[in-house]
Amino acid sequence: MAEIPDVTFLTVAEVAKLMRVSNMTVYRMVHSGELPAVRFGRSYRVPESDVVAAMNRPIANAG
Fold first, then answer.
1. What predicted TM-score, i.e. pTM, was given to this entire model?
2. Domain boundaries, the chain
């Protein structure tokens, strides 16, 4: 039997709270591919490690 990796998944609301953005912003990030997610039924779950990686990415300079 294959070993199951120890991954913690977060809901969209939990991701939004951690990143201090709206739920809609998280959905946009998921749909654009900027934030990987797994769909469970009608909801999405995002691996915690991907949230941390997204938060540590440098912000682009505008202007």
1. 0.82
2. 9-56
